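Section 5.1 Outputs to date
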Amino acid sequence: MDDVALAAGVSRALVSLVFRDSPKVGSERRQRVLEAAKQLGYRPNAIARDLATGRSRTIGVLLNDLHNPFFAGVYDGVETAAGELGLRLVLTVSRQRDAGEHAAIETMLEQRVDGMVLASPRLEADLILDAAAFTPVVVVGREVLGPNCDSVMTDEPAGADLVLRHLHALGHRSVTHVDGGRGAGAVARRHGVIAAAAAMGMAPPDVIPGDFTESAGVAAGRRLLARPSLPTAIFAANDLVAIGIMATLEEAGVRVPDDVSLVGFDNTSLAGLRHVELTTVDQSCPEMGHRAMDLLRQRSDGTHDEPTVLLATPTLVIRRSTSTPRGT
């Protein structure tokens, strides 16, 4: 930095201001500093700066599963917000394993991140709150509240209610729900299906155990095909599960939606593909990622210190995978 200051004919303090993008520096002197830095091949030492300020300006992000487009949507929102705030991101992936999540969180803490966004973690809440004792944490897709820890999630029961109302209006009087297992939001979705069915006078839902994976959808599809008869409508825990069910049924000659209506959850990029056209609940994944970053910013600014849960309002995107029951 001293060399850049000497070459540009300015003070070392002014060079520091330029590389902190301070508005206090005029355009002519800013250009001189940048040109001198370019000629000398200078790059600011981020590690030294972090040690001096006590902040890394880095946010850790944990994604549960890279195979699920839901997480790409959340990360898109996080990345956009980080760019607006001038923050760097450290990305980790747990592969749906508790041990992987724990290791990822420890790695981010070791790197002294200024905050963490955990997308649909499966770890026990106490372990997440332990991490929040060292740096602010926002959990996306699941409610975990405590000191220094906030949550951003979809109103899961409202999403389930939208699905059941749509199916009921089409003429379906019962629904099979393929559950999301330990996935974040799965329990709330299952309870929402049961409550919505009761409120509309539909038969109690048939719940099939599952997980938030395509393979769980394949397994559920095979299980349904082994039964004497198929349901008229299936509500899958997420889009990946729905796609697994769709592929399995159609391979067996069962047509969606002519024979069975099918609904997913998440409105991922897969749901809109021409050969899929899946009716699904949109929970605005990028918006949740952006709002998570906004909560971290408020924690950093000192404008927010109470545990908070932000609920995103879901909407139903109706495509070709749902229709009136066969024979009506």
